[in-house]
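Lecture notes, unit on protein representations.

Consider one protein chain, 346 amino acids long.
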Amino acid sequence: MTYTRFQHPGKDIFLIDMRGERTYPFSELVSKWFEKYIKQWKKIALLTTKKWFATWTICKDCGFVPRCKRCDIAVSIHKDDGWRSFWLCHICKTQYDYPSQCQSCGWHDTQTYGVGSQQLAEQIQATYGIHSVLVDSSYANSPNKIRQLTEQLQTAQIVIWTSLLSTPPKDISFDIVIVMHADASLHVPDFQSNWNCFNSLYTIIHKHTAPTYLVQSYVPEHKALQYACQQDLQGMQTYELQRRKTNDYPPYTQMCVLLYKHEIEKRLYGSTNKLYQELLFLQEQYELKDVQIYTTPPLVYKVWWKYRYNIILKGPWLRQFMDVAYSKLRMRSRGFKVDWEPQKLL
């Protein structure tokens, strides 16, 4: 049981190293506090980034991972109001029946990974016999549901939430806040991931009034988590700006992303490569050696049957170059979407 303790006026924060833990999803420290607070009938809040039962499924015999037919993403396991399992694509929202055996080899033994809010609620019910209130967009998408949810929050001992309670509801406070996957957004390949991770955890600790916070992470030494637990906004801003300057990211350079989509994968490669070569020719013609141009697929390669590919441009004076390239190369008529100064690269 390894953790770092951060103390602030009225708040005690424990940043827990999950790498040495033998139990999942709760660390030894979280389990001890959890059992103690249940017996004392104190109000417990658990934050998880996953609002489903499990993130994905794998066959233990052949390694097959079920994926959406329309999108290049593994389908997640959800449960309906009757707790019957089904698969759901989080991109196109297509539902699939949950089979009793592997669709590839017919094997009956599969393994699920990634504990979501529904699975947490199920485990707590089975272990402690306590019903948890789930809070996410699907439970608060109408005035009637919001009213019912607000009434439940008043009396519930255990609340499991995603992002809707980052700002605590009026007149409701918790005795302890447990953050299950504090480092989840750090593993997203995007230049904003460090800041997003910090901002999420910083906001939770800053806005909630709970006296105790238990934060679970597999990379507790990461600066984003350290600064968030220290409640050091200025320190994180300084660190993040230096990191972006070193790696040549905004605001120290200009950036533009050109996205192309097509149902035929070969056509996708051909069109993207042709524009890429034309951009390189223009770059050489205008002698803009500081402009970086490269191609890469997005994190989700296919959405709604269409394959996707990016051309990313970075560098000083990029706006002038893009104004010329946009008109000369007719990007819009060729089907390219231009995202100037993108907020993310996904």
